[in-house]
Specification:
By secondary structure, the chain is an alpha+beta fold. It has a single domain, classed as Zinc finger, CHC2-typedomain (DNA Primase, Chain A), CATH 3.90.580.10. A five-stranded antiparallel β-sheet has the order 1-2-3-4-5. Helix 3 packs across helix 4.
Length: 113
C-alpha cells in the first residue's frame, strides 16, 4: 500500500470544511475559536458548547468526552475509520489530490539524513 503524506493532508484540508462535512454548526464564534456540540458523542442539549475548535490551528477538544486532536484525526474519529482510509475519503470528498509519499521517502520516515 502506498504511503500518504498525512502532514500535507492536514495542511490542505480546512477545519471548516471538515465541520461542514460532519454537519457541525458552531453555536458561538470568537475569531478563529468556535464552540458547539461535539460531532463525536453528540450534544447533550441544543445549546451545548462543550466542543471547542481553533480553525486556524486546525485542532479540536471536547470538554465532555475528552476527545482531542487535529483536523484529520477529527474526521477519522467521526467517521470511525483508520487514519489512512479517512485521509483517502477526505481528499476525495473535498476534491484534493491525495499527497502520496515518494517511494524513497516511505522507508526513511523517522530517520535523520
Amino acid at each position: 500500500m502506498p504511503g500518504i503524506d498525512f502532514r500535507q493532508v492536514r495542511v490542505r484540508v480546512s477545519m471548516s470544511a471538515v465541520l461542514d462535512l460532519l454537519g457541525g454548526q458552531p453555536r458561538t464564534r470568537c475569531g478563529a475559536q468556535w464552540r458547539g456540540g461535539c460531532p463525536l458523542h453528540g450534544p447533550p442539549s441544543a445549546t451545548s458548547r462543550c466542543f471547542a475548535v481553533h480553525v486556524g490551528k486546525k485542532v479540536y477538544h471536547c470538554f465532555r468526552c475528552g476527545a482531542a486532536g487535529n483536523v484529520l484525526e477529527l474526521y477519522a474519529a467521526a467517521t470511525r475509520q483508520p487514519l489512512y482510509q479517512a485521509a483517502l475519503e477526505l481528499c476525495g470528498r473535498l476534491g484534493h489530490a491525495v499527497p502520496w509519499l515518494e517511494r524513497g521517502r516511505q522507508g526513511n520516515r523517522g530517520k535523520k539524513s
